[in-house]
Amino acid sequence: MFSGFSTRRATQPDAVFLGDMLVEAANWRAGGVRPRHEVLTSADHRRYLAGWKRAADEGLIAVGDDGVPVGAAWYRMLPQNEPGFGYVGAGVPELIIGVHPLWRARGVGRTLLRGIVELASAQGYARISLSVERDNFARNLYRSEGFNVTAEGLMRDTMVRRTG
Ligand SMILES: CC(C)(COP(=O)(O)OP(=O)(O)OC[C@H]1O[C@@H](n2cnc3c(N)ncnc32)[C@H](O)[C@@H]1OP(=O)(O)O)[C@@H](O)C(=O)NCCC(=O)NCCS
């Protein structure tokens, strides 16, 4: 029923699909139903995508063999005065990842994660960070891919991985 998938670099016209994946990330919890418009305009989330694709933005799109995007991972440098949930310092880009619900648990997320770490390394970044709510299973995925918890909040943790 499912075909295979491959990855490619994200480009400016992928902004709409990245928006879909940002909504998936915001609504990760079963039953999460925050409407697209609300997520994409919220102060917490719009900073991860507004104005895509800026100079330092990079991303990967996972594409099914039929050419349809099925998942994405991207990173962005956020300033100290408008940090993301996973901000750890100047020069450390923050990662966002989401996979279409029908394509989850098929290796897309892990493939994207490995690819985006390689991309960050190739772009000269020594570290990459993310933020994850503590009860999201994705925390285990990140840990298994070399991310370590560097800060614990009430509900969410910041995780960082060295790219080298
Ligand atoms: C988190 C997410 C990106 C992972 O992508 P994915 O394609 O489903 O992940 P993979 O198929 O590569 O699976 C990675 C590992 O997680 C495990 N896993 C997948 N779905 C799982 C689930 N629902 N519960 C527990 N473990 C799960 C897999 O078994 C796999 O481990 P393994 O390699 O040891 O078998 C994707 O599920 C998603 O978009 N979730 C909603 C949005 C979200 O939570 N984003 C992250 C916010 S920080």
From TrEMBL:
PROSITE patterns: GNAT. The keyword Amino-acid biosynthesis does not apply. Transmembrane segments: none annotated. GO terms for molecular function: acyltransferase activity, transferring groups other than amino-acyl groups. Residues 5-164 form the N-acetyltransferase domain. Keywords: Acyltransferase, Transferase. PANTHER family: ACETYLTRANSFERASE (PTHR43877:SF1), AMINOALKYLPHOSPHONATE N-ACETYLTRANSFERASE-RELATED-RELATED (PTHR43877). This is GNAT family N-acetyltransferase. It comes from Microbacterium sp. A8/3-1. The lineage of its organism: Bacteria, Bacillati, Actinomycetota, Actinomycetes, Micrococcales.
